[in-house]
Each structure stands twice: as structure tokens, then as C-alpha cells.
């Protein structure tokens, strides 16, 4: 027999044997009181095969192994492993008796599940999401799963091309706190300066953590600064790392976009390859383990520049950056005794990127024809290293549980330029430069105590703790030729991104001390009251006290009411306080040198711009959860968020007006610095957000398979209530924070995003069909003329098939019908392309295939 025929025969034999061995497993999952556990996860051990319980706690699963073992888990309960059979009943015990208890973000009570939380919490099972969708990184996964979460890839946005900004409930990227295993994650060192989202904000880079290392993501859609500290104005995202042992999972994924608006005959671009492996090792019988993940992702450029404008092409190269991303993440626990254990987790991420800058055409005075006779397209490169490490001890002290930990994180971002020049050096200019960069580091020491009093009414949980945090920020200069002008009659510095100058460089640090107390009291089995108070003191702006009160009442078995009221704050990031740079911006297609002056610079002091202080917020959330029949559930939450003294990046002040008249206040100073415009960070505005979150779930048996349907929506209205000027700029509100900049803030999220998903599983086959409607977005061009991006509905379709009990193949498409945002003249957009980075992105249809392997002992 020829060897080439052997593999199909082996696969056929394996499939046949599997089909003969397959049996249908049925059962019901209940809690200790005999009540059905809704949404419990039931997985056939060592395979990709799994399901969830319906509204009656029941499940049906077609086995893929001859002697199936089932792993049953649910938030707030102890995971159990049982032998699979028909008509099985599994009783889950509450996990509150163990230090390994699952803790849902938004509560420090270890017996609080997501279903009885007084605040709205989304739980996203990463395993099920990644198995059936084409998105590979965390930002894009959440963008198409969680309606209140928004993230777009940027292009033509300098550093934001390499670090995707993300927002929750339409607020800024820095107004959402990110935790990993309940510990504060450090932010990126990048300040977003361009693009349609996150302008002037710093944020947390979610993509440094590979999806393969994550068990689930919890999104608390509620203000929580009183519980967790600064940044939690819009909510909290808690990333929970995997704890599985003796199980090997691996996957390989590849996808590409069907090219459009290209000048060549290429059919596909933006190829995206990802490979990862995860394995956990159990150590002894006390739950000790080490779980490790390796992940590699490489994404190629997309090219979307071939949209002509009335004045010709604004750019010859326009599209997603090329990015190479490698990660190593670890999660571990080491038992010291039955009452104490040490935990260690963290990881290392290395990213390199190439992003297109604006084209310098052949006749541009910033070009040197001897080097580039046809002009050139600068490439901005990035070299980003992100590292984190958390170590701690959890132990019992009598009836109290003590958690002591130290958390260190670092993010370093270095800029480079290639395919460029310094025009002031003429034909002798280099074509590649090191442009400098920045680094942010954070070290957090925390101590927390929790205790549950079961005999106080129906249960009282008390928690208290202290937290000390030190942050460091450093901005370092590039090589001299990247910023220096060697010829006064020419433009100096590397084209595409002038290097940071020695005068920009700075080292800064600050200290923070926080202390909190919170409590949750079950007055009756139906009524829960909760409250939290937190004190914070920052070495650079002083102290603040915040509080939160919440309640939840079970009206009937099928209806629960809940509500919260809280105050919050966000400290301005060290980057916002200390960033300083001179860069090139394109306004109506013309290059202009812009100074972004740090908060305490001579320019800002002369203008009377005050020292940055914390943002403060007031928020309220009122909603209900309901089970409508045996297989239908509904949650509705309305919210109000008022943010005062919001830190924004101001509009750019011009040295001269349209009639070439020198500005009497700032003009002479700007021209002396060699720049045409200047911007600043300031507590310049107050905003108010009103919104509604709706989630409707339904489960049904269709034929011999199971259909899960979800309708999830976010409706959000953000208004800018006032613009606050100061000093010699008083009365110049439109110059200080004008309509165009206000439109970018409002465009942090569309007014609504609606997600409708159908997930059908039958035998070895699975199908996911998803529709996402992104509402219209309104921006303004450089002349404040409206740019209305129409609403769009994207369609995703995935079909999966289990080739063997351990190997699954999925193929599909995101944005199946190849939709793009509304097209505009590239001269009018922020990015120089036919659209700004809004809504679902601007790359069109994405086709993908993925293989997933899972096996356990």
C-alpha cells in the first residue's frame, strides 16, 4: 500500500471507531439545596466537546470518547469530575469553604456568584468564544462579544497603530480598570495622540495577554473606584488565567482579508497567523499547579489606500500595521498547608510593529529627490516589551482570610523610523533612525482581609485592606539625527515621526496609598445590602474619599431587582502629566509642526493652564434580571455616569490665524520654538453619560442538537456639558476644546451596538451565526464640516467539525458581506485614508481556519 493513502484510511478508521463508541449523555446540575444551576459548564475531559446547562439545569452532550469523564463547573461552586452517563444528576457544592473559591469581580464575598451580584457582570468563557470566532486578540474578541466594550484598530495614528485603545460604556480607555486574577494590571506607557478613539488617553494594553492563557473574562459594568481604586469610573475588566492541569491544548489559526481598494491584483492581504500551546502540571494532592502558555501571532499589512480624492491620493500606503507578537504567561499555586498557599503569575510580551506614516510625494519640500526620486512612505516601527509578575500568599488567620501580595509591571515602548530621511541633512541623510520612547513601571503592595459571618442575619461578609503603589515614568530622547535641524532653511528631524529631543526627556515618579472597607449583608434570603468606602492619597495631587452603596432584591424566583450608587475618581496618568513632544500633523493634507507641551512647561504656565488634578465621577445603575419561562433569561440595566474635570487633549492653538496674523497671546512663543501649533493636557470638560444594557438569552433543543441564542445591546448617550478655560485663554472655549475634539470624545463608542448570536451544536458539527449592528458615528473634519458614518450590520459565520475526539476544525468568515464604513475624501479624515477608524474597522471580509487540539491524562 502506498504511504500517501495511509493517512486518510487511518483517519477514517479513527472516525468510524469514534462513531461506534459515541453515546448521548444527559443530566441535570443542581446546587446543595436541589435548585437547578443555570449556565453551568459541562466539558468532556480531554476534548473540545462541551455544553452548558439550560434554564432547568439540564444538559445533553454527545460523547466523543468510549468512557467519557465530565468536568462540571460554575461560578461560585466547586468543580467536579464525574463519569458520564444518561440521566445523570450532579450536586455542586458552594466553593465558599475553600481558599480556592471563585470570586466574581465586583464583590469580595467568596460565595457571591454572577447571578446574585448587585452590579451587572458579564462572564465571557474564552474557550467557547475562541473555538468559534475568527478574532485572535483579546481586544477584538471583546469588541464583537460584549456590546458595552469598543475597540478599533487604528492606522495613521503613530503609537496607537501598535497598541489598540479600548473603552467601556463609551468613556475613555483610561477610565476602565483592568485586573488580572483580581490584581491591578499596569497601563501602557503610550499616550494616544491621534485616531478616533482614546485621544489624549493612556490605557491598558489587553493584547499583551494571549487568549490561550485566559480561562474567562469578567466585565463589571459599574463604577467601582470605591472598591478597586483609580480608573474604575466606567467599570472593571478582570482577566482570569487558566488553572487546568494535566491537559494539553494547542491551536493553529490563519486568516486573511479579501483585498479591496488596492492598486495591484492581490486577492488577499492582512494575513494573520497564530499558534499557541497551553499545559498545566499538577503538583501533589493539595491543588498545587503550574499552568503555562506560549503564544505567537504575526499580522501582515493591509492596504486600503486606493480611494481617490478630488485632490489626488492623500496617501499611497494606508492600512493596518504589520505586527509580530510573542508571549509567555504563567499561572501557579503552591500549597503550604491545608490553610495556606503561595501564588505566582505573570508574563512577558514582546511586540514589534511596522506602521505606515503619511506619504511624502516627490515634489514635497520635505523630500530629498536624490534619495527618493518618486517620494517616499515613512514606516514607523515599534519595539514594545511588556512584563508583569505577581507573587502572594493566602492563608487563614482564625476566621479571617488574609491575602498579601506584591505586583510589579513594566511597559516600554521604543520608536524607530525606516524608509525615511532628515531633509535638513540633504542627500547625506540616513534613511533609518532611533526616535526614542517611553517607559511606565508600577509596583503594588497590597494586604487584604475577608471574613464571612454566617450567623449574622442571613450572612455578612466583611473585607478591608490597604494598598501601596509606586509608579515611574520615563521619556527618553532619540538619536540626534532623528530630531535635529541642521539647515534652518529646511525641515529637520526624521520624517513620519520626529525623534524625542533631550528637552522632552524626563524621569518622574509618584506614590499612592489606599485603604478600603466593604461589607455585604444579606438581610433576608431575598434582600442584599452592600457598601464600600475607600481613601486614597497621591503624592502629586492629594487625597480623595469615595464610596459605593448597592442592593439586590429577589422579588420572586424569576425576578431580581438591583441598583448601585457610587462616587469615583481617576488620577491623571504620569504620562499625561509629563509627556512633551514636537511632532508633525497633517491638517487638510498639509504638514504642520505641533508642540504638545507638558503640564508644567513654560508655555502652559504662561497661558495659565492649572496643574492637572483627578477626575471625579458620580454614577448610578438600576436594573433587573429575570427568567421568563424555562429557557429564557433577561437582564436590563440603565446607567448614569457624570465625570467632572475630565482630562482631555485640547485643540491645537495656532501661532497664526487664517489671515496670517500672529496670535497676540501665544504666537510669538510658538514661532520661537519653531512650531505652528500647540496642544496641552487639561481638566477641560465635564461629561454626562446615559445608557442602557440589555442581555436576552434563550436555550432550546432543535432536532437532536442544542441552539443557544443571545441578544445583547448597549445604548449610550454621552454629552459634553461644559468646557472650562483658564488663565489668558478664558473665553476661548472653541479654541481650547472645540467641536472637532468634542466629536472625537463622543465617538469613543457608537450610540448603540447590538449583538445577535445563534450557536447551534449537533453531534460533531457546530455553527455560529452572529450579527452586530454598529450605530452611526458623527465626526467633524478640519473645517468642522460634519462627517456622518452610517450604521452598519456585520455578519459572522463559523462552521466547526470535530475530526477526532481531540481535534476540531473551524472555518468561517468575519464581516461576511464585505462591508466598509462610509467613504470620505481622504483629505478630510484624521488618518489620510477614506475613513477614520470607527465601528467595525476598515479591512472588509476576513476568512479564517483554525485547528484546535485538546488531550488530558
List the SSEs and their pairings.
Elements: H1 6-21, E1 24-31, E2 41-44, E3 50-52, E4 58-62, E5 69-73, E6 80-83, E7 88-92, E8 121-125, H2 126-132, H3 138-143, E9 149-151, E10 166-168, E11 176-180, E12 183-184, E13 214-220, H4 225-228, E14 235-241, E15 247-258, E16 268-283, E17 288-299, E18 322-337, E19 340-356, E20 379-397, E21 400-418, E22 432-453, E23 460-476, E24 506-522, E25 527-538, E26 542-556, E27 559-570, H5 574-578, E28 581-587, E29 590-596, H6 602-607, E30 615-627, E31 632-649, E32 653-654, H7 667-672, E33 677-679, E34 681-702, E35 705-723, H8 733-736, H9 739-746, E36 752-762, E37 765-774, E38 777-780, E39 786-789, E40 792-804, E41 807-814, E42 846-856
Parallel strand pairs: 1-7, 11-14, 29-33
Antiparallel strand pairs: 1-4, 2-3, 2-5, 5-6, 8-13, 9-10, 11-12, 13-14, 15-16, 15-42, 16-17, 17-18, 18-19, 19-20, 20-21, 21-22, 22-23, 23-24, 24-25, 25-26, 26-27, 27-30, 28-29, 30-31, 31-34, 32-33, 34-35, 35-36, 36-37, 37-40, 38-39, 40-41, 41-42
Describe the structure.
Residues 349-816 form the TonB-dependent receptor-like beta-barrel domain. It holds the Pfam family TonB_dep_Rec_b-barrel. It is a multi-pass membrane protein. Residues 114-236 form the TonB-dependent receptor plug domain. With 857 residues, the protein is mainly beta. The chain folds into 2 domains: 17-93, Immunoglobulin-like (Sandwich), CATH 2.60.40.1120; 114-807 and 821-856, TonB-dependent receptor, beta-barrel domain (Maltoporin, Chain A, Beta Barrel), CATH 2.40.170.20. The chain has 9 helices and 42 strands. The strands form 7 sheets. It has a 22-stranded antiparallel barrel. A hairpin with a 2-residue loop joins strand 36 and strand 37. The two termini are 34 Å apart. The model is unreliable at 1-21 and 96-102 (pLDDT under 50).
Amino acid at each position: 500500500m502506498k504511504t500517501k493513502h495511509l493517512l486518510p484510511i487511518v483517519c477514517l478508521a479513527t472516525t468510524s471507531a469514534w462513531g461506534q463508541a459515541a453515546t448521548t449523555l444527559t443530566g441535570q446540575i443542581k446546587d446543595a439545596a436541589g435548585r437547578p444551576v443555570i449556565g453551568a459548564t459541562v466539558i468532556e475531559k480531554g476534548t473540545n466537546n462541551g455544553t452548558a446547562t439550560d434554564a432547568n439545569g439540564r444538559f445533553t452532550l454527545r460523547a466523543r470518547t468510549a468512557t467519557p469523564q465530565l468536568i462540571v463547573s460554575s461560578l461560585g461552586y466547586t468543580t467536579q469530575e464525574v463519569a458520564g452517563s444518561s440521566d445523570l444528576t450532579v450536586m455542586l457544592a458552594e466553593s465558599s469553604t475553600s481558599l480556592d473559591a471563585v470570586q466574581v469581580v465586583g464583590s469580595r464575598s467568596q460565595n457571591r456568584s454572577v447571578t446574585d451580584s448587585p452590579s451587572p457582570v458579564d462572564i465571557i468563557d474564552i474557550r467557547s468564544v475562541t473555538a468559534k470566532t475568527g478574532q485572535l486578540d483579546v481586544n477584538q474578541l471583546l469588541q464583537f462579544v460584549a456590546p458595552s466594550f469598543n475597540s478599533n484598530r487604528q492606522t495613521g495614528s503613530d503609537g496607537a497603530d501598535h497598541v489598540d485603545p479600548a473603552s467601556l460604556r463609551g468613556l475613555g480607555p483610561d477610565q476602565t480598570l483592568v485586573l488580572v486574577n483580581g490584581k491591578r494590571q499596569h497601563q501602557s506607557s503610550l499616550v494616544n495622540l491621534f485616531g478616533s478613539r482614546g485621544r489624549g488617553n493612556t490605557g491598558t494594553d489587553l493584547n499583551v495577554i494571549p487568549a490561550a492563557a485566559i480561562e474567562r473574562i469578567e466585565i463589571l459594568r459599574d463604577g467601582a473606584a470605591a472598591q478597586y481604586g483609580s480608573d474604575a469610573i466606567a467599570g472593571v475588566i478582570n482577566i482570569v488565567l487558566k488553572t487546568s492541569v494535566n491537559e494539553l491544548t494547542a491551536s493553529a489559526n490563519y486568516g486573511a482579508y479579501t483585498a479591496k481598494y488596492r492598486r495591484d491584483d492581490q486577492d488577499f492581504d492582512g494575513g494573520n497567523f497564530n499558534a499557541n500551546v497551553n499545559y498545566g502540571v499538577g503538583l501533589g494532592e493539595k491543588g498545587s499547579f503550574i499552568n503555562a502558555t506560549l503564544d505567537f501571532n504575526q499580522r501582515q499589512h493591509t492596504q486600503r489606500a486606493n480611494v481617490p480624492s478630488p485632490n489626488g491620493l492623500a496617501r499611497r500606503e494606508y492600512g493596518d500595521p504589520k505586527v509580530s507578537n510573542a508571549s509567555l504567561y504563567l499561572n501557579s499555586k503552591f500549597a503550604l498547608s491545608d490553610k495556606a498557599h503561595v501564588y505566582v503569575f505573570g508574563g512577558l510580551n514582546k511586540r514589534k510593529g511596522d506602521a505606515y506614516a503619511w506619504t511624502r510625494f516627490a515634489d514635497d519640500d520635505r523630500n530629498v529627490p536624490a534619495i527618493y526620486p518618486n517620494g517616499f512612505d515613512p514606516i514607523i516601527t515599534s519595539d514594545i516589551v511588556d512584563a508583569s509578575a505577581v507573587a502572594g500568599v493566602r492563608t487563614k488567620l482564625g476566621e479571617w482570610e488574609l491575602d498579601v501580595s506584591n505586583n510589579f509591571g513594566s511597559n516600554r515602548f521604543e520608536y524607530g523610523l525606516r524608509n525615511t530621511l532628515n531633509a535638513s541633512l540633504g542627500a547625506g541623510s540616513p534613511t533609518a533612525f532611533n526616535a526614542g520612547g517611553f517607559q511606565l513601571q508600577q509596583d503594588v503592595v497590597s494586604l487584604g482581609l475577608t471574613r464571612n459571618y454566617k450567623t449574622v442575619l442571613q450572612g455578612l461578609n466583611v473585607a478591608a485592606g490597604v494598598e501601596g503603589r509606586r509608579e515611574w515614568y520615563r521619556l527618553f530622547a532619540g538619536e540626534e539625527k532623528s530630531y535635529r535641524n541642521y539647515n534652518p532653511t529646511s525641515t529637520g528631524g526624521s520624517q513620519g515621526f520626529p525623534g524625542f529631543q533631550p528637552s522632552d526627556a524626563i524621569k518622574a515618579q509618584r506614590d499612592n496609598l489606599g485603604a478600603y472597607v466593604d461589607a455585604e449583608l444579606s438581610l433576608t434570603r431575598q434582600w442584599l445590602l452592600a457598601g464600600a468606602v475607600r481613601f486614597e492619597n497621591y503624592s502629586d495631587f492629594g487625597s480623595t474619599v469615595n464610596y459605593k452603596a448597592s442592593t439586590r432584591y429577589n422579588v420572586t424566583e424569576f425576578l431580581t431587582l438591583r441598583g448601585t450608587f457610587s462616587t469615583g475618581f481617576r488620577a491623571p496618568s504620569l504620562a499625561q502629566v509629563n509627556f512633551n513632544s514636537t511632532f508633525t500633523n497633517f491638517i487638510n493634507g498639509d504638514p504642520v509642526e505641533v508642540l504638545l507641551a507638558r503640564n508644567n512647561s513654560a508655555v502652559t504656565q504662561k497661558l495659565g493652564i492649572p496643574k492637572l488634578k483627578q477626575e471625579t465621577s458620580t454614577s448610578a445603575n438600576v436594573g433587573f434580571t429575570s427568567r421568563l419561562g424555562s429557557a429564557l433569561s433577561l437582564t436590563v440595566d440603565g446607567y448614569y455616569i457624570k465625570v467632572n474635570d475630565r482630562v482631555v487633549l485640547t485643540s491645537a492653538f495656532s501661532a497664526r490665524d487664517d489671515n496670517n496674523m500672529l496670535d497676540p497671546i501665544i504666537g510669538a512663543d510658538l514661532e520661537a520654538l519653531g512650531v505652528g501649533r500647540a496642544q496641552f493636557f487639561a481638566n477641560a470638560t465635564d461629561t454626562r453619560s446615559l445608557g442602557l444594557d440589555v442581555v436576552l438569552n434563550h436555550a432550546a433543543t432543535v432536532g437532536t442538537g442544542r441552539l443557544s441564542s443571545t441578544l445583547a445591546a448597549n445604548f449610550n448617550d454621552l454629552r459634553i456639558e461644559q468646557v472650562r478655560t483658564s488663565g489668558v485663554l478664558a473665553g476661548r472655549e472653541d479654541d481650547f476644546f472645540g467641536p472637532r475634539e468634542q466629536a472625537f470624545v463622543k465617538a469613543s463608542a457608537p450610540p448603540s451596538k447590538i449583538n445577535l448570536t445563534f450557536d447551534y451544536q449537533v453531534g460533531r458539527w457546530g455553527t455560529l451565526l452572529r450579527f452586530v449592528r454598529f450605530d452611526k458615528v458623527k465626526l467633524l473634519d478640519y473645517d468642522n464640516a460634519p462627517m456622518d458614518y452610517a450604521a452598519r450590520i456585520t455578519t459572522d459565520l463559523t462552521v466547526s467539525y470535530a475530526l477526532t475526539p481531540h481535534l476540531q476544525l473551524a472555518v468561517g468568515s468575519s464581516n461576511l458581506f464585505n462591508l466598509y464604513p462610509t467613504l470620505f475624501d481622504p483629505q478630510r479624515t484624521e488618518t489620510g485614508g477614506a475613513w477614520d477608524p470607527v465601528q467595525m474597522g476598515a479591512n472588509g471580509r476576513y476568512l479564517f481556519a483554525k485547528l484546535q487540539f485538546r488531550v488530558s491524562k
